[in-house]
Write a structure and sequence with these properties.
Layout (H helix, E strand, L loop, with lengths): L4 H15 L3 H10 L9 H21 L2 H4 L1 H22 L19 H21 L1 H13 L2
Helix pairs in contact: 1-2, 1-3, 3-5, 5-6, 6-7
């Protein structure tokens, strides 16, 4: 099966970063690259988002982050849940491109998504919060603040 042009382009940019002798400089150049004038449809945006998440995951591994900074790659798990929730919202005909705290619109999450998010977040910050219960309380307070 041939990949859509936009997914191939996203993967090509990520390959350039991976093959670069200076990946950080290459990534900065990628950030400066002009995005398409417009995407053909929402599915195209979702496909590019998914390709970016998958590409960043594998690029992190190729740079040794899976071994030397494991928690860093856990953010890809968070991003994957986000992309999948956006796909579900789109399939349900709900707004997803601007679903966030500022728009007061949420995304459809399943129980399994919430459990997975908690697992990833715990991997990244759990030990910090266990060692500093006051930070955990502050975090919970901030999450509850604007409900």
């Amino acid at each position: 099966m041939t990949q859509p042009r936009h997914v191939s382009q996203a993967q090509e940019l990520l390959s350039q970063v991976l093959l670069s002798p200076q990946p950080a400089a290459s990534a900065m150049g990628m950030l400066r690259a002009a995005p398409p004038a417009e995407y053909a449809n929402d599915e195209e945006i979702l496909d590019v988002m998914a390709a970016w998440v998958e590409g960043s995951y594998w690029s992190a591994f190729s740079l040794g982050l899976g071994t030397y900074a494991h928690a860093c790659i856990e953010f890809n798990g968070l991003m994957s849940v986000y992309v999948n929730a956006c796909r579900r919202a789109h399939a349900e005909g709900k707004e997803w491109k601007h679903a966030n705290k500022h728009s007061k619109k949420g995304l459809p999450l399943r129980d399994v998504d919430v459990i997975y998010l908690a697992e990833k977040f715990d991997c990244i910050f759990g030990e910090t919060f266990k060692a500093n219960p006051e930070l955990w309380e502050l975090f919970k307070q901030e999450m509850e603040k604007n409900k």
